[in-house]
Amino acid sequence: MIEYKHILAVIDADRDNQPALARAIELANKTGARISAMLVVYDLSYDMTTMLSPDEREAMRDAVTNEHARWLATHLAELGYSEVDTVVEWNNRSYEAIIHHAVNSSADIVIKSTRPHDDLASVIFTPTDWHLLRKCPSPVLLVKDHGWPPGGQIIAAVNVGTEDEEHANLNDKITVIANDYANLLSGHVNLVNCYPSTPLNIAIEVPEFDASTYNDAVKNHHLKQMAMHAEKFHVEGDHCYVKEGLPEKVIPYIAKEIDAELVVIGTVGRVGLSAALIGNTAEHVIDELACDVLAIKPDGFVSPIS
Q: How much is the pTM?
């Protein structure tokens, strides 16, 4: 059961509408949570004021921050959200300010809007989005500008073939949360899992290797594990998908096929050089999705933003 008490909605000053805030209002109406609307501001001209005194620089910063605070209050009133708490902070790294505030205010979830792409069917994820996905300890919901109709489809992206305990626990956590959202929104949970294709180099280098038998064994293992996972969480078999291929191809394909409203996915929060060289499977998946995404961290995750 979802028991949100505090929702942090990130405001985009470049948009007339605020999809993140609209989604926060939708969740708050169902959970009774309070909402904080957060705007992070920074003026690049501030970097060129080093010749000014500290007091003068602080006065400039306060003037810009107060101006945006007035704008935010007026903007929320125009949208009919005047009862929402407002937070305006000065920081040239907006993701740091968002994460700090989420942690210090014990936010149950951070909601941020995505940028629509030119073709209208996809979205653009900004560097701030990626930093939040990697480093924010709270669940991060990235939203499009659309509604959540009753009876919508919700995907829990799982890896049931794993033997790693952390990933197995994350599978359970993802599925529980997907079920909670389905109950909250009168929707339907779909479990999506993919398995790797037969390694081509083995088939070439080992003549006696039977690629077909190997592929069937892997597929059957995943089907069996999916059936066990689905039974554990009371998900019907016709809402379970086990497909061969890469997650970044399979999950967006299923999401499009069933017209999913939300994909719940786990992120391990890899940062630093390993993230640059190896990448994050979840991020590759998210980059291909055109629906809302709820990114969940494993239990015990510690944010690198102190």
A: 0.88
